[in-house]
Amino acid sequence: MTELEQSLINEVKELNEKFDRLLELFARGGMAVGKSPEPRKKRCTLFEWLSVWLENEHKPNVRETVYKNDCGIMRKHVFQKTDFNLPLEDFKLMNLQALVASVSSSRQKLAVSNMLIAALRSAYNNELTDKDATVGFKKPKYDAERRELLRVWKKNVFCDFFAVTRSKRT
Questions:
Q1: Which of 85, 79, 123 is nearest to 102 (CA)?
Q2: Whole-prediction pTM value?
């Protein structure tokens, strides 16, 4: 291939990219003279946004095992309990609180709230919503003391069981 042919191919690629940008600009309504391009807000549902957020923003920032675990948590606790057609703009603080409160385990509750807060703040930062739905939300606390007491209690019950069975054998 000669240099002339290569330069023509490069120019054609460049013109195609410019044409694609013009089409996108036209689709957003910014082709009128003197009018700056303003992107229209895309109305997406909560389910669509959470799926996009998980794949594009969460996955690159965590290990593969954490990502798989978080997808399972979202599938079990969020996707099953929300309306798939609920517009993202209609998801308010009350919905967030109700969704997090519906999770029974304190560790899972904390994980769900952290992921939802990150996804909803990202939606607000990307201008998909007018208001940040996480303002005023109080994160649940992981009850480590209760968990430790339960662990010690189970250990004691286990040890007592084996002590009784050992004494019966002798």
A1: 79
A2: 0.60
